[in-house]
User: Fold these one by one.
Assistant:
Number 1:
Amino acid sequence: VAIEKKLVAHKICHFLGPLLSRHCEDVLWVALGFLHKLSIFEQNKDQLVQSIEVVCRLAELAGHQNLEVAFLALRICYNLSFDHRGRTVFITQTSLLGKVLTACQQASSRKLAFKLLYMLSTETSQRSVI
């Protein structure tokens, strides 16, 4: 936890965001692993949600053919869904909803997908879209 707090101070999320556009699965897996650990902290969550490109890229990665990459992206999306702006961007500007519904059909990601669906449904102004 001490290391994560130091990374919060250095604003490392700004450096990890551009790595999500890479195509190498190993780089994606490492970057997503760091972002997952860092997205627990509110300061990092706020930094990630401010970048619409990162949020959109995370939604794209939730449908990645590598199941580990897709699951990590779903976990980060779940962490970001606790923020009002994150939920709004996920619902209005990404195709995350379809990918979450697909994840509901897979036994390995069903529990997380239902949690994420619940969090997205808490946005009362966007319920008609869901």
Number 2:
Amino acid sequence: DLTAVGLWSSGSLEACAALVMGAARSQGHCAGDFINYGVQGGCQCANDNCLSRTADLQFGVYFVWQLQAPLAYSLVQDGQICTNHDSLTGLWVRGSKQACTLLVAGKGKDQGLCDGNHFHYRSFGGECGCATDHCADRSTSGGWSIYEIGA
């Protein structure tokens, strides 16, 4: 809890993310890529990948990278996924399409999991996956859509 260490009193989700990625991280209070932001303005940082969570109606879990400058992307195909893909296990729990874009083009590409240019996203559940190649081979999958980054 960043309030307990004197770094937070209240503020917006964006201010919480900036604190977590800035001062709280540099002072060793935060190490993960997720924050808990409360309906009353509370700010907490997660120091893991948030795969195991406790239900709390007062807080939402956010992927901090989704608040970075947006990347352009365009729809390639509805109702399909890239056949050769990575589900980003350990890096992704759920989130926005923009957060998925940033993860695929950033950590996903840097770690060699993604080609960095194509991803598929399902709004229901905020699910994200990335192509391991140029996504020439595609499979039908309801609710998913393929996108190209920078197009």
